[in-house]
Write a structure and sequence with these properties.
about 210 residues; seven-stranded mixed beta sheet; about 30% helix; globular
């Protein structure tokens, strides 16, 4: 039986790299700050920390973090997205891999931070989410951080219905040995209000226990 494709591939057919990059280029040209995720991560730890951008897409965040002095590796399953990243930052490390099979890359463990921004978790192949969280946790050093951002409703997702709930996500993190440290409603650090679901978006910081 063929492996089920991730939700992102179902939406884009794996051909969205140039269109995605152009959208952010237009936002930057119009004066929008497109580096919120990088600024958030930079506030958590100092360079030259090792960062794994899991689901890196066109490399927007990893490229910015590298400019700030971080040691960044980007991983994505979409070749059209990685083609843009490799063109824009050919000296950085860009790897193509399904996050559910991250261990197949043989990455050196001990990352200080693993980032899964841009709705990476909600757009995984259905049923692979616990495996992906476990794989991401496994490459963290003791005390390392998993930082995620995800939409919780249709207004914050390219999906008609949400695919992941925060209780489920926190459960997967707990199973992977991670503990929730902080949760925000935006990459700018606005407080997350549990009563109104934070406005439909959550930025979470989970940590692997220190040795």
């Amino acid at each position: 039986m063929a492996r089920q494709r991730d939700r992102w591939a179902e939406l884009t057919g794996g051909q969205a790299g140039e269109e995605y990059a152009e959208r952010f280029a237009q936002l930057a040209a119009s004066g929008h700050d497109i580096h919120g995720e990088a600024a958030f991560c930079a506030a958590l730890l100092k360079p030259p920390a090792r960062v794994l951008d899991a689901g890196c897409g066109t490399g927007r965040v990893a490229i910015r973090l590298a400019e700030l002095g971080y040691d960044c590796t980007g991983v994505d399953v979409d070749p059209s997205m990685l083609a843009v990243a490799r063109r824009d930052a050919p000296s950085q490390e860009w790897l193509q891999c399904d996050l559910a099979r991250l261990d197949a890359l043989g990455l050196k463990p001990g990352f200080d931070l693993v980032l899964a921004a841009g709705n990476v978790i909600p757009l995984l192949a259905p049923g692979t989410e616990p495996t992906v969280v476990r794989q991401l946790a496994a490459v963290l050093r003791p005390g390392g951080l998993l930082v995620t951002g995800m939409g919780l409703d249709a207004a914050h997702l390219p999906l008609s219905d949400p695919s992941v709930t925060l209780p489920d996500f926190d459960h997967w993190c707990t199973q992977a040995g991670l503990t929730l440290r902080h949760r925000y409603a935006t990459w700018g650090g606005d407080p997350y209000d549990q009563d109104d679901r934070g406005g439909g978006y959550a930025v979470s910081v989970h940590a692997r226990p220190a040795a």
